[in-house]
Amino acid sequence: MNCPVCDGNMIVQDFGGVKVDVCEKCNGIWFDWMELRRLDELTEGCGDALQKALDADLKDGKSRGPIECPKCGIKMKKHAYRFNNDVEIDECYACGGIFLDAGEIRLIREGFMDQSKRKEFLNKLLNNIPEYEKEKESSDKREEAVNKFANIIDKFNIKIL
Fold first, then answer.
1. Which end of the chain is more exposed for a tag (fewer CB within 10 A), N or C?
2. Tell me: the pLDDT tens digits for 117-138?
3. Where would I find the H helices in 17-113?
């Protein structure tokens, strides 16, 4: 398989139980469907090949245009990685493959958002949306009214079927 960025030869390497394709020329990495999810946390994967990829200098893929999937040949979509929004990945929506430029695997692993970080990030995003704030206030008022009603029912010992 050839690299979708530089057309270099990609060789299969073992990143500790996950076999990925690494470009010999630009150090870009191709992940088949769901492989990146098995290596995106600091505690996942092992071995010399993974360490070499983690040590690779960062190549900025943001300035280049879209690339073609080395498996399907269709244009890949560039978007932020779901657990680290600082890294833009190239994803093939047909086969699910993902291409990372050199150094991006390190950024993904270092900035991986666990569940608590994802919740904090989501709240930060939502709190900056005026419509969300209005809905939240409205929801809080409804919850307050329901609680008052429940207290009245309890106070007067009213049975609801």
1. C
2. 778 877 777 777 777 777 777 7
3. 48-55, 104-110
